[in-house]
Amino acid sequence: MSHTMHHGAHTSAGRVIRWARLYDFGTRFFGLGQGRHRLTLDLAAVAPGERVLDVGCGPGSLALLAKERVGPEGEVCGIDAGAEMIRLAREKARKAGADIQFEVGLIEEIPFPDGTFDVVLSTLMLHHLPDDLKRRGFREIARVLKPAGRLLAADLAPTGPFSIMRLLIRAFGHGLPKTYINDLVTMLREAGFSADVLDAGRKPLAFIRAVPATTR
Length: 216
What we know:
The chain has helices at residues 20-29, 34-44, 61-70, 83-96, 131-144, 164-171, 180-190; strands at residues 51-55, 75-80, 101-104, 117-123, 145-156, 193-198, 205-212. The protein has a single domain (20-215), classed as Rossmann fold. The protein is built from 7 helices and 7 strands; from the N terminus they run H-H-E-H-E-H-E-E-H-E-H-H-E-E.
């Protein structure tokens, strides 16, 4: 891959998850692994030959599946604020023989040029960020997307029926307001997107699809 990286001090004001292998195991154990990832790629309509960025890529599982979708003519990159996550993602890509560029990087300072990507993905990471970083991050995503690109974000929905996952969300300190998903949509629209919540039937997860407002 030939993208120009903008290196800086990778210090985030958001929550950085450092226990990469435990996180990787936990997401798979609680059913937040491949099924969610495949649904995310379906909703994003990731296609062969496209350029995809996974923001907050964690241990790289979604990026690996995205690489299968885009094929040899496409490109997949992943960034995460946690160096341990990036090390594990690179290890997994190496074992899979997958050509994916994983770099330590921040959503508020995405290290790629303007208009690089057809698709940006974000799963289960936005709730770790304070609102000011979310807003900066959405503006950065708008910058690195191509004019006809799209964002697919999946995150925790604080409303919905009782479930074990709802209890786990509360237990791990994610005291999200009931308006959380609508607040994300508002921030995306302020950043220049047209954004909608998709009914994917996967509560307590919510999926938001956003495109630059001028292309809708």
